[in-house]
Write a structure and sequence with these properties.
Elements: H1 3-19, E1 41-44, H2 53-62, H3 67-88, H4 94-108, H5 115-123, H6 134-143, E2 147-152, H7 156-166, E3 174-177, H8 188-198, E4 205-209, H9 212-221, E5 225-228, E6 244-246, H10 249-255
Parallel strand pairs: 1-2, 1-4, 2-3, 4-5, 5-6
């Protein structure tokens, strides 16, 4: 991602967190620890489970030599469109904003995005593979009687199709998409979904994030938070950090003493 795009993204997230007033939570909300004794459920973002890299590999395959630039612009606009749609009251779901961001990125780069290529790029989101450590980790957590749920900006259909394709449906207790209340993380409305559905306190639900901004948002909301930092990213400067950070779900299992 270019420095300009990265700085723009960070500024946008900071402004969004301010607007949604997540940072106005009481300091006590940040003091919750991520421990096995307290955790009754784990809420996962999609990408600690599903590997998104094939989406961007497809971009390079279709547009050789330009895939990385397309990926960076597409990804930046994908997030910005989610949040702008939610904040403006003109909501569109994850699939739609992802496609709109792709069209914008291709147009900006003056790439010839045919219907066939657009469909190929979008279809990768419905055919994601799980990371190698996921299956044994989910089995261990499931066998420890922890309720495993998704809490993702992706649509429920996208999540369920990827779950079924990877044989993990039986391990997941429930699928919660922020599409259900027309919100996007890091809005408090989005994080509240798991609390309302599971009928548990925030402190009893561990949140498992893929992105640093999501780890910060979940922690500020009041969730005990584990950041699966698979790409060794620097922490975001958003006023809160995850309780614990690791590179995979195997470390999460060990951290919880399972």
């Amino acid at each position: 991602m270019s420095l300009q795009h990265e700085n723009s993204r960070r500024l946008f997230i900071k402004q969004l967190l301010s607007i949604t007033a997540i940072g106005a939570l009481a300091p006590s909300a940040l003091a919750q620890s991520f421990s096995r004794q307290k955790i009754k459920a784990l809420a996962f973002d999609a990408f600690p489970i599903f590997d998104p890299r094939p989406v961007f590999a497809m971009a390079e395959k279709i547009f050789p030599g330009k895939g990385q630039e397309l990926r960076n612009l597409w990804r930046t606009r994908q997030f910005e469109y989610q949040w702008l749609r939610a904040l403006s009251g003109e909501y569109k779901d994850f699939k739609t904003v992802t496609q709109d961001a792709l069209v914008f990125a291709a147009n900006t780069m003056q790439l010839d995005l045919s219907e066939e290529n657009r469909a190929a790029l979008m279809d990768t989101y419905f055919n994601l593979k799980i990371w190698p450590d996921v299956l044994p980790a989910l089995k261990a957590l499931h066998n420890a009687d922890i309720k495993l749920v998704f809490l993702s900006n992706m649509t429920e259909d996208m999540l369920r199709r990827n779950m079924e394709a990877n044989g993990i449906s039986s391990l997941m207790y429930a699928v919660y998409s922020t599409d259900s209340n027309h919100s996007y993380k890091p809005s408090t409305k989005a994080y509240q979904i798991a609390v309302d559905k599971l009928k548990l306190r925030k402190t009893e639900i561990g949140f498992v994030a893929f992105a640093g901004w999501d780890a910060s948002g979940a922690k500020l909301f009041g969730y005990p938070t584990y950041w699966v930092n698979r790409q060794n990213q620097k922490k975001e400067e958003l006023g809160a950090t995850a309780d614990w950070t690791g590179n995979n779900l195997t470390e999460l299992v060990k951290y919880l003493g399972i």
